[in-house]
Design goal:
CATH topology of one domain in chain A: MetI-like fold
Mean pLDDT of chain B: 84
Radius of gyration of chain A: 23 Å
Strand order of the largest sheet of chain B: 1-2
CATH superfamily of the largest domain in chain B: MetI-like
Largest sheet of chain A: 2 strands, antiparallel
CATH class of the largest domain in chain B: Mainly Alpha
Order of helices and strands of chain A: HHHEEHHHHHHHH
Low-confidence stretches of chain A: none
Oligomer: heterodimer
Order of helices and strands of chain B: HHHHEEHHHHHHHHHH
Chain lengths: 281, 308
């Protein structure tokens, strides 16, 4: 009996983490895109342009319809997950690494390092992120790598703030002072003692930032400043779909839905993680 | 109080100076800012002539100091593409963006604050969780998608509202909602935690013990005492709205600063792009400063601790 109860309780708990499952599913779809997608996302078929969802031709079915060049929307949505997720992951890693390093140094070394670095953070935070991203792309030019660089440049201060505050809170703890007294250098203290202890809140920020990065990439691509065609990006698909909204609603609807689900799962997961960490404290 | 104002104002000035410097160096990320200003068809000679006429052949330090002085005089320069003063171009677009931001703020406040209040009062119950889910969903909605979907449903299918453009109040409805949803989520969450904070305080418990009804409690005490975080977050939201306008204006062909930015990038009008970014940053800095000052005015306790 008790086994059944605990099983139910356990499955209920597993279900309450549905954002993690959904996120995992989307990541899997991105990884296995070439095997999952029914068609080549870039193959054009000018005889099958702007067809309704479910349209069939010569044995192939366009389950989510076709776009203005006769490409399969479903295949492009699946491949779009690759672009979205890889840009978001890479920019989170890059901005996180820079931001955390800056924040920890400022919080641990204090003094003029703290003043200079944290003022720099303030300055970056006074430019609305999307505007900073836009002006930088306008200078560097669009493209996959540039988008990642720009997003990292725009978002590192967020991590710096959190890492700074967390580091301040534990830098004076006995175990940190002890290790310093025993001759550990700054890199060693930061890496071995401080980083593991501030990782939790940083992970929450990174998860929320992941959702934001997905939105930013799609936004830049929507404005034509992101990933360039023919690479399948949800934002770029939405931009095309907007022009065909009166005649072919599916072109914009499905990539947007995928985008929404990805961002929603990341935000919900970040929220849950925040709750759990908050309780643990 | 005066010390606080001076200190806070000084910080804002440092931020302004930093932003100007940052923008100056971003211009030079590719090494040659002239390439940002000339049309793609320009010949070598055109580019060289432009470089000399703009003084971009001089040492970087000289250019930087001159850029600082231009900013001090609030001189944003000329647009070579539109052949007009950048200020005039901006001024012609600002009213539309303000309208849109105001519309979005109305949507966010009118819906977000009540939702936050309900969430706080029904904490722990299913309805509170349901609203929180809704709020999180709003937060995750890409504005360009929600905007396009609204155009599809209300503009194309139902034909209730004009799908894009400007002119009447009806034109303002969909862009305001699209832009306002994100701020709505922020307000709902802020309001929720502010009210929950207040609910835990002694005066609320003793008022309840005296038999004060929830409605009266909300009207007389909770709303007023929860207003401080709401005010300070509004300053931050203003700059969010300005940034969000870039995408919403593009979706709805709304001729404000956001659409101007996107058009200027397409037409390689870098002076205008730079001006919008600077404007956005200055508004953000000013709004933050205003929030901090308001904070001390509304809540004298902040002054005692000396930190806002």
């Amino acid at each position: 009996m008790s086994a059944a109860v605990s099983l139910r309780a356990r499955s209920a708990r597993a279900l309450s983490w549905w954002p993690a499952w959904l996120l995992g599913l989307l990541v899997l779809a991105a990884i296995f895109a070439p095997w999952l997608a029914p068609m080549d996302p870039d193959r054009q078929n000018l005889l099958a342009r702007l067809k309704d969802p479910g349209f069939e031709t010569r044995g192939a079915t366009y389950w989510l319809g076709s776009d203005e060049l006769g490409r399969d929307v479903l295949s492009r949505v699946i491949h779009g997950a690759r672009v979205s997720i890889s840009v978001a992951v890479l920019s989170v890693l890059l901005s996180g690494a820079v931001g955390v390093a800056v924040g920890m140094l400022a919080g641990y070394l204090r003094g003029w390092v703290e003043t200079v670095l944290m003022r720099l953070v303030d300055i970056f935070l006074s430019i609305p992120a999307i505007l900073l991203a836009i002006i930088t792309v306008a200078v560097l030019g669009p493209g996959f790598v540039n988008v990642i660089l720009v997003l990292a440049l725009t978002r590192w201060p967020r991590y710096a703030r959190v890492a700074y505050g967390q580091t301040l809170a534990i830098a004076d703890r006995p175990f940190v002072r002890l290790s310093r007294a025993m001759g550990a250098g700054t890199p060693r203290v930061l890496w071995q003692h401080i980083l593991p202890n501030i990782a939790g809140p940083l992970l929450v920020v990174a998860t929320l930032e992941f959702g934001l990065m997905v939105l930013f990439e799609a936004g830049l691509s929507f404005l034509g400043l992101g990933v360039q065609p023919p690479m399948a990006s949800w934002g770029a698909m939405l931009s095309v779909g907007r022009n065909y909204i009166a005649t072919a609603w599916w072109i914009a609807t499905f990539p947007g839905l995928a985008l929404f689900l990805l961002v929603l799962s990341a935000n919900m997961l970040g929220d849950r993680m925040g709750d759990v960490i908050g309780k643990g404290r | 109080m005066l010390r606080f104002l001076l200190q806070r104002g000084g910080q804002a000035l440092v931020a302004v100076f930093g932003v100007v410097t940052l923008v100056f160096f971003i211009q030079r990320l590719t090494g040659d800012p002239v390439l940002l200003l000339v049309p793609e068809t320009a010949t070598e000679q055109d580019i060289e002539a432009m470089r000399v006429s703009l003084g971009l052949d001089r040492p970087l330090g000289v250019q930087y100091v001159e850029f600082l002085f231009d900013m001090l005089r609030l001189d944003l320069g000329r647009s070579f593409v539109q052949n007009a003063q950048v200020w005039d171009i901006l001024l012609s677009r600002i009213p539309q963006t303000l309208q849109l931001a105001a519309g979005a703020l109305v949507v966010a406040l009118l819906i977000g604050l009540p939702l936050g209040l309900i969430m706080a009062l029904t904490r722990g119950r299913a309805i509170s969780r349901a609203i929180m889910g809704l709020v999180l969903a709003f937060q995750s909605l890409p504005t360009f998608w929600s905007g396009i979907m609204m155009i599809l449903v209300f503009g194309v299918w139902l034909k209730w509202l004009p799908p894009s453009g400007t002119g009447t109040l009806a034109h303002l409805v969909m862009p305001s909602i699209a832009l306002g949803l994100l701020s709505l989520a922020t307000y709902a969450r802020i309001m929720r935690s502010a009210v929950i904070d207040e609910l835990g305080k002694d005066y609320v418990r003793s008022a309840r013990a005296r038999g004060v009804t929830t409605g009266r409690l909300v009207r007389r005490h909770l709303l007023r005492n929860s207003s401080i975080p709401v005010i300070s977050i509004t300053a931050l939201e203003l700059s969010q709205l300005l940034a969000g306008a870039v995408i919403v204006e593009t979706v709805f062909a709304w001729p404000g600063l956001g659409l101007l930015t996107v058009q200027s990038i397409a037409s390689r009008d870098f002076m205008v792009v730079q001006a919008v970014v600077l404007l956005g940053a200055f508004v953000t800095i000013a709004a933050n400063l205003a929030a901090d000052i308001l904070y001390t005015v509304v809540d004298p306790r902040v002054r005692l601790t000396g930190k806002a």
